[in-house]
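Reviewer 2 asked us to include a model.

Predict the structure of this chain.
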Amino acid sequence: MTVESPARRRLIVASNRGPIVFGHADDGSRTTRRGGGGLVTALSGLVASHDVTWIASAVTEDDREVAAETEGALEEHDRAGRPFRLRLIAHDPLDYDRYYNVLANPLLWFVQHELWPTGLAPDIDHGTWEAWEAYRRVNAAFAEAVIDEADAAGDGVSVLLHDYQLYLVGADVRAARPDLVLSHFVHIPWPGRGAWRVVPTQLREAIGRGLLACDVVGFHVESYVREFLAFCEAVPGTVVDWRRRSVRSNGRDTLVRAYPISVDPAEFDALASSPAVLAAEETLLAERPERLILRVDRTDPSKNIVRGLKAFDRLLEERPDWRGRVRFLVLLDPSRLEIPEYSDYLAAIQRTARAVGERWAAPDGTPAIELRIHDNFPEAVAAYRQYDVLLVNALADGMNLIAKEAPLVNARDGVLVLSETVGAHDELGPFALSVNPFDLQGQADALHEALAMPLAERARRAAALQAHVRGHDVRAWLAAQLADLDALAAAR
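Predicted model (structure tokens):
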């Protein structure tokens, strides 16, 4: 159920990606738009209830120009006009490239999503160690910014660190400000200890020490909590208390907790009736087939897009009655294309979509798969409204907010086909059709079952999905974390 937020407080949020993306209009004037990603979506709710300073990397050239013009800090506003302080860190470009495109992605991302084909890759070489030093420097810059902002804020400020790009920040902040209340939320899966063998011991232990410098380490689901506690048993000088779900290190305790992330239902209700979404939906309706299967994702190997396309191919091969009646709309946001593994995967998506789409094209030549690769959020929300089946078959996902966003606004009692290996399955599995992400036949069968499901059963599942997400919203996620931090602060 929804949890009431605690009293207004001063918060410092640190994440690699910021809530604002700066750009330029055709006339040269500066533009701003909301940053993408589930983290930004979730944390934007903080601004409504708290005094927030958000620290992020200046990623683009426009970001760096803004950072230079404002000496790194400026006042910004969320979509509702509520103010927050934004501090942008302009890193050395080479350091940032190595930190982000070598160490964080793909090394750590692939480890934590268990994507490395370890017989062939990765090679931990001189370039990896250079990237590790860059990762350390970028994390140190974040720590310095956090310390500066905490010093300026005075007593009573809490620090919320986020995700795999900032694993070392906590240790530096703790050394300078032992009084601060620190949390670190990891938004991606925490795999079993075997997956971490890819990472040299020195790096693993530094990651562990960075996280254990915080008062609370948060994950989306309990299985990640258990795997992190097991990981900590291999970090020298730690004692794991499995009953309390805590780790003692350097004379202090770190609580390890699960806080399932969610979305803001009111925001999506408003989006669904916005002019941009209604216009996109009108276009979609004009081209709509009898049945529509939808997926919305980033072009990331962990999302398992190619296998989803192959499962659709198998569906139409085995179920000729669906040919010409169902189309697969695939909306993809291009992701990390500077990294070879990602650009190669995008090419595989395009090849497979073209081959399957043309194989089962309608008599008028319309391909059975429509692949759109661009960042168009209103279009995605319009498609959320219109799907009959939503396919979420990721190999691994910390949560997967699309599985929560789309059912909120869907107008057709759409059925969710959901991978059993994503965090959202812990909550939404009872209302979805569960699939193994490697099982093409199982996914094809689930797509058929979803398409053929009786109307009453579709309506029952759709209503249950909506009720769960509305009752377990982003405010509950935030409030649970802040309540734990308040309890720790009061106990000091």
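The chain has a mean pLDDT of 94. The longest strand covers residues 291-298. We have added this to the supplementary material.
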